[in-house]
Write a structure and sequence with these properties.
This protein is α+β, with helices and mostly antiparallel strands. It has a domain of 125 residues: 2-Layer Sandwich (Tetrahydropterin Synthase, Chain A). The protein is 22% helix and 39% strand. It is built from three helices and twelve strands, in the order H-E-E-E-E-E-H-E-E-E-E-E-H-E-E. The strands form three sheets. Strands 1, 2, 5, 6, 10, 11 and 12 form a seven-stranded mixed beta sheet that branches. Strands 7-8-9 form a three-stranded antiparallel beta sheet, with no helix packed on it.
């Protein structure tokens, strides 16, 4: 045995390591395949823009605590849920079913929209997604995707999440974000 003292630092026990660990982390999912192409128009009382489309890009940011498994949540779950929502919106006409200035009705195999000035749009029902929103804006689309993502994460019993933020971009450098707290801050 050597007379020299052991120079290795003492290893902290688990409780000391856990106390030194930050309490909240943020994970971000921004993938090229989290996108959808869709037609829409913004309409509110006294204004309606022409029907047009975008190649939307979706991003997700989730804050939470790191579990004993070493991560906040499985990225794969977020990608799967978000990809599924994007797929439902892809190559469709996005219709705000709760609009305050559009009348939305099903007529046979069609969806008919009538704006307050009498302008009428008729689309095949298979080409339309009726969304529980008031306006087909990037902001309300972000809130819709967030609501769907939250429900999907709850179905997977994901634990320790604190906040979700969803971004919906209409064009490069042009996006709207919606954020929601999932648990009260501690």
């Amino acid at each position: 045995m050597s007379d020299r003292p052991d120079r290795r630092p003492a290893r902290p026990d688990r409780s000391e390591r856990d106390a030194a660990r930050p309490s909240e982390y943020r994970v971000v999912v921004e993938k090229d395949f989290l996108k959808f192409s869709a037609a829409h128009f913004i309409a509110y009382k006294g204004f309606r823009e022409p029907l047009h489309g975008h190649n939307y890009q979706v991003s997700v940011s989730i804050s939470g605590t790191v579990g004993p498994d070493g991560y906040v949540l499985d990225f794969g779950i977020v990608k799967d849920i978000t990809r599924r929502v994007c797929g439902e919106l892809d190559e469709r006409v996005l219709v705000p079913a709760e609009s305050d200035c559009l009348t939305v009705a099903r007529e046979g195999a069609s969806v008919v929209l009538v704006y307050e000035d009498g302008t009428r749009f008729v689309f095949p029902a298979t080409d339309v997604v009726l969304l529980p929103i008031v306006h087909a804006s990037a902001e309300e689309l972000a809130a819709y995707v967030l609501t769907r993502l939250r429900a999907g994460l709850q179905a997977h019993a994901v634990r320790g999440l604190v906040e979700i933020e969803v971004g919906v971009g209409e064009a490069p450098g042009q996006a709207a974000y919606c954020r929601a707290r999932l648990t009260p801050p501690s």
